[in-house]
Amino acid sequence: MTERQEAILMFVIESYINTVEPIGSSFLSENSDFDVSGATIRNELRALEEMGYLTHPHTSAGRIPTELGYKYYVEHLDLGEEITKDTHNLFDTSLVVSQEPKEKIKAFAKFSAEFAGNAVIVSFGKNSLYYTGISNLFSQPEFQNYAYTLNVSSVFDECESRIPEVYEQIAKNEIKVFIGSENPFGGECSSIVTRFGNEHLFILLGPMRMRYKNNIKLISKIHDLMH
Question: Which residues make up the CATH 1.10.10.10 domain(s) of the chain?
């Protein structure tokens, strides 16, 4: 992949995450700084599709990311600065809720679910799960599709049985992103997971079209606060 193709791919994915609309060459010409012709952009989009990073919905002239595209995006993501001062202040407010460790983590989970607009699952060990933000998750545009919603709903029924396997895949102090087919909590979604304590997990679950940059920084902050 050339540098220009990578820049176009990253721009397309970020634009799709923000707009939930397929991204075409005209959008790139009008909203980006790529100093090339529309024909060149169309050729690059076609090349990225042939490489498997983008796909072409039947009803649109634009492209959307594939699972492979999202994986490339996350692997090459520049996280930039840490979360903002305002967000730090909101975390401080969450800390005030309770000094009891389990309640504090629940407060972090509620805050994270609202901040990210996704669901959060916390495993405190065997037979002890906490969920929050499920309505946030199901309010995402992807869930207008009934079959999609049904598939993701089943994740919550089967979640407890998947926790031990996930725990084994994550090293201590690691934050791991699972995308699509590699996601233990449903192939239609992505999850960002970190470990804490003994056999405990903090899981942010959202559609593959999630705001990875913000969410990875969010979970990183949660991880730091829980250690």
Answer: 3-75
Topology (CATH level 3) of domain 3-75: Arc Repressor Mutant, subunit A (1.10.10)
Residue 219 tokens, joined? 């979970």
Phi-psi map region of 206: left, alpha, beta (phi>0 left; psi -120 to 50 alpha) = beta
Concatenated DSSP letters of the chain: --HHHHHHHHHHHHHHHHH-S-B-HHHHHHHS---S-HHHHHHHHHHHHHTTSEE--TT-SSBEE-HHHHHHHHHT----SPSPHHHHHHHHHHHHH--SHHHHHHHHHHHHHHHHTSEEEEE-STT-EEEE-HHHHHTSGGGGSHHHHHHHHHHHHHHHHHHHHHHHHS-TT-EEEEEGGG-TT-TTEEEEEEEETTTEEEEEEEESSS-HHHHHHHHHHHHHHH-
What is the token pair recorded at 209?
Answer: 């079209």
Q: Which of 44-53, 118-127, 142-151, 173-182 has the lowest mean pLDDT?
A: 142-151
The rounded Cα 61 to chain-centroid distance in angstroms is: 25
* Superfamily designation of domain 85-226: GAF domain (3.30.450.40)
In whole angstroms, what is the distance from residue 205 CA to residue 116 CA? 10
Q: Please report which confidence band the pLDDT of residue 97 belongs to, taking 50, 70 and 90 as the band edges.
A: low
